[in-house]
Amino acid sequence: MKENPQHLARPRSEALDAILGDPFAVLDHGFIRVIDYMGDEAAIVQAARVSYGKGTRIAKEDRGLLRYLMRHRHSTPFEMCEIKLHVKLPIFVARQWIRHRTANVNEYSARYSILAREFYVPDIPDIAKQSTTNKQGRADGTDDMRPEAVQEIIREGANRAFDAYDLLVADDEPDDIGLARELARIVTPMSTYTEWYWKVDLHNLLHFLSLRADPHAQKEIRVYAELICNLVETWLPNVWEAFVDYRMEACTFSRQEMALINKLVSGMDLFAEGVEPAGLSDREAADFKKKLFLST
Amino acid sequence: MKENPQHLARPRSEALDAILGDPFAVLDHGFIRVIDYMGDEAAIVQAARVSYGKGTRIAKEDRGLLRYLMRHRHSTPFEMCEIKLHVKLPIFVARQWIRHRTANVNEYSARYSILAREFYVPDIPDIAKQSTTNKQGRADGTDDMRPEAVQEIIREGANRAFDAYDLLVADDEPDDIGLARELARIVTPMSTYTEWYWKVDLHNLLHFLSLRADPHAQKEIRVYAELICNLVETWLPNVWEAFVDYRMEACTFSRQEMALINKLVSGMDLFAEGVEPAGLSDREAADFKKKLFLST
Amino acid sequence: MKENPQHLARPRSEALDAILGDPFAVLDHGFIRVIDYMGDEAAIVQAARVSYGKGTRIAKEDRGLLRYLMRHRHSTPFEMCEIKLHVKLPIFVARQWIRHRTANVNEYSARYSILAREFYVPDIPDIAKQSTTNKQGRADGTDDMRPEAVQEIIREGANRAFDAYDLLVADDEPDDIGLARELARIVTPMSTYTEWYWKVDLHNLLHFLSLRADPHAQKEIRVYAELICNLVETWLPNVWEAFVDYRMEACTFSRQEMALINKLVSGMDLFAEGVEPAGLSDREAADFKKKLFLST
Amino acid sequence: MKENPQHLARPRSEALDAILGDPFAVLDHGFIRVIDYMGDEAAIVQAARVSYGKGTRIAKEDRGLLRYLMRHRHSTPFEMCEIKLHVKLPIFVARQWIRHRTANVNEYSARYSILAREFYVPDIPDIAKQSTTNKQGRADGTDDMRPEAVQEIIREGANRAFDAYDLLVADDEPDDIGLARELARIVTPMSTYTEWYWKVDLHNLLHFLSLRADPHAQKEIRVYAELICNLVETWLPNVWEAFVDYRMEACTFSRQEMALINKLVSGMDLFAEGVEPAGLSDREAADFKKKLFLST
Questions:
Q1: Are C137 and D183 inside 8 Å of each other by CB?
Q2: How far is B102 from chain C (nearest CA, A)?
Q3: Which of C216, D92, D155, D234 is least surrounded by Cβ atoms within 10 Å, i.e. has the fewest?
Q4: DSSP-derived 3-state class of residue B36
């Protein structure tokens, strides 16, 4: 290395290497496995600085820079990290997931291969009525439901569908139908499991998580998103912390709401006794004051 | 207009305006409707020239430029046209279609709304065995099949699935289950129809067509692609002609194949009597000779 | 139309048609012209509802839906509108602009064509020192500057560069150099004007505006963004209003800041006399309360 | 590993690791360094099979699959590899490069930092007249040029521009102008060097190379592309071989040209003595015959 001080070793995450390939269970038959990744927190910092890799250890000032980038939505440095997951998931979840276009996907093809009889049946606590307040969601609680009956309808329906599927694709005996797989699959239910490799950069992954780990997301995709949250925290702990502070648990107020907040706090001694700016740097505290009086 | 010679009227296609909104049937319950479009052939030419719209009529030299752009895969001018379609299609077709990422989509949501009992059942001539030569396709002919039996299995399976679905979402009587729609939908089959608005630029549309109007595409998406081919021809006839000549019916030979072709034609008088360069301009004829001797 | 109730006319914006093609001046030699567009507010609503065009007039409830979509960052319906601009701009501005990847571009090529001697010289009020607080910006005021001298250095430098360029590309006399244009252009300054057609969907346009019409954007790209803001307001007034309320003049507070705000307003009667929820619907007022106590 | 047979080690390329970080010189002051990468040939094969990594060594049948994928333009498995480069390049090259949108970029910012006096001056053999046949290129040879004079004009012009730049940004003495860097940079020439991190998936990288390593590309970007060709060959030798055979040295014939070729070879014994199907597998030989008679 002495002859060429620019020679690099690949950045790696020991924590992620330790679980590489290991399947983490999701729902009744699904999983997520980390297959590969590119980059670490130093790689984000490096791209932000467009400088040569001066040490790969994350220093205190690096954490500050990561938080600055997240706070100000400077997204391109986060695109410098990439992760590849192997995911097994029900097709109705896959249909929501695939709407995130900036990612690379290779999915199991039921045109080539025969589908296994694997389908999703929700757990009792996840079975609920249509919400009357949230037009696209489910109500809380299963009190006035017969969730076991619901499970049975879903399970029996899927089994009958797979009976039909198996009948259509069978090709062992002379009298078997042997229907083309690309046609036979159309009888299988939306609860059927599929698999794919999904590769995405960190910026787009965080955007995916902000939408799919949100309480408004359908429960069945949310559990995948929540597991990926854990993986990101394992991989890039300071990025994860900043993402939680500035995105997941941040709150946006409209122009009208800001006018109200401004009236409310106007005249207050913002950082008076008992209201110390806990967790804010001096700069953030100054920004905070500025934001609150923005619309006076 | 005299005061401002740059003032424009929107480019329009009379032929497309004449069919705007009209549904064209595809498969047993599907359709395609043109909802809106942007640009015409003059808009492509204009972008290629980055000049002011000197006349909107397509002149003879404009056709030549369009063919030149297509031949040399100069794709950005074709991105200057856009089309928006309203499509009704089975979900297994939608799952192939959505893999084309550079497009805008708004799909019917079965989280909000109740699904109609509409599903795809293939016509007799489309029912075929798994191909033994093409691992992802169907064989020719239905000779040794019982296609009516296949139709019955598919239809009955779908009807039973929708019986279960209707039972799950019913919410009129006190004893009705009223399951959340986002859960109930998981029992419906992949043959269920959905709808979406799909908006795409011409370059990406042509790429979609080159893959999905191809004989290797699954029949059920190919019929949609073929109908869109007609729409493109209606909208942009010279672009369509160039696309057929240089993409759809063009043929690519590998390095090794080129070596063979070269041996075959070496020494031949390429444009001898009886082998006139039909349909080639002088420049194309010269290019043709050059290509054939490329690997000598 | 009676025979086919689905037949459509293209949505159009009278206000935008009235200015189509007209150049609006930006900086000293630049301009923006609207060349074409697709869709109106009804088209956004239609995509959100995936329903048939029940009237194209924007009704009161449509405005509410547009605001709902903007507030909840439901971005795909906004992708259903598209606009195409012809822009003349300095190359250093074009270099920032092009970083917005989800757009279609055809730019004037200095490989083909000879560049005109057109370059940007900032106005006196725009000439300022490097900011000491904002590492990437300029300070306020020109008090301790000699702005005329700066203008002269910039103008003279550009003129000398174009003298060299003209000398290199000249090809009239036998002794002229006639250097390839693709090489000669490398002597021209970053202030040189270029032109392009830029086509983008509304969602990505709004994202562009949120970054480039922001006070932190460089002045020279901001003036283009501000002009485009006016064009969007002309085209889609309710969208524009919602964008201002929920994005441009909205304010996001971090997890830590929310904890502080919560302490500040805790125990307050939020909508007591004098703090009426001006401009909030009942639902928004309820949401507002919820947000403020989110982190208790 | 015995306890969990799915546990993985990251795929790596020894050949690429050996040169990681090492700068390879391009043009007079430019370079390319490989900073990081994701995936190897086994990763492409794995994605194509959506199967568990059965051995990471590339077997004979894997090479065949890679060639099959390339031949049939199955592009998604190639998206499973990713590479990150650190590139130093002149701005006029960067402006062509950035047009490839599906990539991640972090560029040196002359709003923050002061530009070094580094600019491109073409070598004598690269200085040529405007081509009379290729409207966007340069002619062959420097015979009737005074290339040293051209070099001098370019070098002197750039030096004068940097004199002006240095004068504008100087901020040491009380009388120094200290102009904001974002403004001062506009006097620098298009030949000025910039730097960026560029991250791209293999599919999009190959598309970039097919356009930019092509003889029609401007020489100054082509030399970067050619160096990247070497890097891809080092990283993924079988992919590279397939890319050369089926893309770089392949040849596409239009519908009209195919009709002519068909006439030419019609009646020929394609694989007669002396025309053996060198380098074609049996399947490819059959495909070849089929292609040649496609348009009969």
A1: no
A2: 9
A3: C216
A4: strand
